[in-house]
UniProtKB/TrEMBL annotation:
InterPro entries: DEAD/DEAH_box_helicase_dom, DNA_helicase_ATP-dep_RecQ, DNA_helicase_ATP-dep_RecQ_bac, Helicase_ATP-bd, Helicase_C-like, HRDC-like_sf, HRDC_dom, HRDC_dom_sf. Belongs to the helicase family. RecQ subfamily. Its EC number is 5.6.2.4. Residues 518-597 form the HRDC domain. It holds the Pfam family DEAD. This is DNA helicase RecQ. Keywords: ATP-binding, DNA damage, DNA recombination, DNA repair, DNA-binding, Helicase, Hydrolase, Isomerase, Metal-binding, Nucleotide-binding, Zinc. Its cofactor is Mg(2+); Zn(2+). Residues 26-195 form the Helicase ATP-binding domain. One of its GO terms (biological process) is SOS response. It catalyses: Couples ATP hydrolysis with the unwinding of duplex DNA by translocating in the 3'-5' direction. One of its GO terms (molecular function) is four-way junction helicase activity.
Length: 597
């Protein structure tokens, strides 16, 4: 069976071999085993259920909360020759009726549905009459109340399973999930002894950077000018910030779209479509945008503000480099961002337990911003990979500043926290250490402590940053609340007792932009992109559904001169070779002739 799957992989998708984790998952599903897959964005999750769906008799259901992703994937599958459709709120009544009629007639190998569709009695009656061998649940973390994107409608999936006889195989997929969220997925989706595959969270083609202490507008202008013509997403935390950033880019002469919940549905749809079709290179958005964008050639994701948690950040940053080509993930940090996120938590409708969890998640995000260790290792360790290696590419790994022994400064800070009874936060602790003539400091009698003013030669914001670094690296703990309180960990106690030294790079990194560079596109690559865009416009599909950037780049390296040679390029399946091969070979031949002469 797996040999047939390999042949189908080449025939339909144009790939000679499975990627990490794919073969194990495909084999399990074809053998009738449930599965839980945790695979980073760009690792090829979709093929893990699309290939079995193609090979199994009947119609596979794919449950996804992402309406935009449904359309993208359905377009791409139909372009490949696999009959697929979707059911969601974007369909008119006549379109919905026609699709459901065609489902009943068995015309489709796959149907994508929004979880809200499970509330429809008509739909539930229909599926009970169909042969459904497999249900794939995408973004499965949405089933967990401990996940970053809980969707109550996902709890209807067990009801769907009870409607279908015999019970179909169930496969759950997500890019990010802590151990607690994984167990919730297994429990809530009633997975039966699932095959578990975690391919690792590290993205070897992505470079992560945290930039602090810069004028964000100046950085944005410089960054965007260096990346003219590249496709990218800029995330901001509020609608107002999105509008402001986008207006600023327009004034710079950079055409950019915007996307947030305050816009009309029509404007959001138009912006998204222009971005997908490469008519807009840059999108400025809140986190309402991007989760469902299957756009392969996003070269950078820049977070203008700190996100609410590491799971959201890694999901959003993962929009870059889905094609396996280099991508950049840059986060601009400012202390005010933390206050904005706390305000959003307090304004939310969550109960106190949920808010406490949101504050804990925000603290993990702030630790990421301040760690002096490898950024990618920090993230994958958060998700449970304890033996992760350093990436060697991020802004921490490439930081050339000398490591300094700051044990004495650390001891002063730890001593001050102890003398303040471990009952106060970062700001007032920094004021005491600096010796600030502050009313609150005097009110509590902290101006009489031995640690008052012991770091008087430093600015308050420098002391605050150092405290944050020590917290990020596990010496200090902050409580999970709106006003977090500092306390010492055992590591800090060891430092106070003289049993451990503290060495850090602690100055602000202000020139990270100079290290955030990518190689430019070559001439042939540009010509192939122009051809792809022309073909995509004629077919009225996004360019990446024709070929991904990685496929075009391999063409540039191989310079295929025949259909047989072009068929060896990854991503060129039989149908696309027949439909587009001649046009791409002609462009390559013309380029080869010009460069030869």
């Amino acid at each position: 069976m797996i040999e047939q799957a390999r042949q189908a992989l080449k025939q339909w998708f144009g790939y000679d071999a499975f990627r990490k984790g794919q073969e194990e998952l495909v084999s399990a599903l074809l053998d009738g085993r449930d599965a839980l897959a945790v695979m980073p964005t760009g690792a090829g999750k979709s093929i893990c259920y699309q290939l079995p769906a193609l090979m199994l008799p009947g119609t596979t259901l794919v449950v996804s909360p992402l309406i935009s992703l449904m359309k993208d994937q359905v377009d791409a599958l139909n372009e490949t020759g696999i009959a697929t459709a979707f059911l969601n709120s974007t369909l008119r009544a006549d379109e919905l009726n026609r699709t459901m009629q065609e489902m009943e007639e068995g015309r489709y190998k796959m149907i994508y549905i929004a979880p809200e569709r499970l509330d429809s009695e008509r739909f539930m009656r229909l599926v009970s009459s169909l042969h459904i061998p497999l249900i794939a649940v995408d973004e499965a973390h949405c089933v967990s109340q401990w996940g970053h994107d809980f969707r109550p409608s996902y709890m209807q999936i067990p009801k769907l399973l009870r409607q279908i006889h015999p019970r179909p195989v169930v496969a759950a997929f997500t890019a990010t999930a802590t151990d607690k969220v994984k167990e919730d997925i297994v429990q809530h989706l009633k997975l039966s002894r699932p095959v578990r595959v975690t391919t690792g969270y590290a993205r070897e083609n992505l470079t992560f950077s945290v930039v602090k202490g810069v004028d964000k507008r100046k950085f944005l202008a410089s960054y965007m000018q260096q990346r003219a013509g590249q496709s990218g997403i800029i995330y901001a935390s509020t609608r107002k910030e999105v509008d402001s950033c986008r207006d600023y880019l327009l004034r710079l002469g950079i055409e950019a779209g915007r996307y947030h919940a305050g816009l009309s549905e029509q404007e959001r749809a138009e912006s998204q479509e222009k971005f997908l079709y490469d008519e807009l290179k840059v999108m400025v958005a809140t986190n309402a945008f991007g989760m469902g964008i299957d756009k392969s050639n996003v070269r950078f994701v820049l977070h203008y503000n700190v996100p609410k948690n590491l799971e959201s950040y890694y999901q959003e940053a993962g929009r870059a480099g889905r094609d396996g080509e280099p991508g950049e993930c840059v986060l601009l940090y400012a202390p005010q961002d933390t206050m904005t996120q706390k305000f959003l938590i307090e304004q939310g409708e969550s109960d106190e337990q949920r808010k406490q969890m949101e504050y804990a998640n925000l603290r993990d995000m702030i630790d990421y911003c301040h760690t002096t260790g490898c950024l990618q290792k920090h993230v994958v360790t958060y998700f449970g990979e304890q033996d992760a290696a350093e990436c060697g590419r991020c802004s921490s790994c490439t930081d050339e500043r000398e490591v300094t022994d700051i044990t004495e400064h650390a001891q002063k800070i730890f001593s001050c926290v102890v003398r303040m009874k471990q009952r106060f936060g970062i700001t007032i602790t920094a004021k005491v250490l600096r010796g600030a003539k502050d009313a609150k400091v005097r009110q509590f009698g902290f101006d009489r402590l031995p640690t008052y003013g012991v770091m008087g030669s430093y600015k308050e914001k420098e002391i605050v940053q150092l405290i944050n670094v020590l917290a990020a690296d596990g010496y200090l703990r902050l409580s999970d609340s709106q006003f977090p309180v500092l306390s010492l960990t055992q590591r800090a106690v060891a430092v106070l007792e003289g049993k451990e030294r503290v060495e850090q790079r602690v100055t602000i990194v202000e020139q990270a932009a100079e290290r955030i560079m990518l190689a430019g596109d070559d001439e042939l690559f540009d010509r192939l992109r122009q051809l792809r865009k022309s073909l995509a416009d004629k077919a009225k599909v996004p360019p990446f559904t024709i070929f991904h950037d990685a496929t075009l780049r391999e063409m540039c390296v191989r310079l295929p001169a025949s259909e047989a040679e072009l068929g060896e390029v990854k991503g060129v399946g039989e149908r696309k070779l027949a439909r587009y091969g001649r046009a791409f070979l002609q462009v390559i031949a013309e380029y080869a002739a010009e460069t030869k002469n």
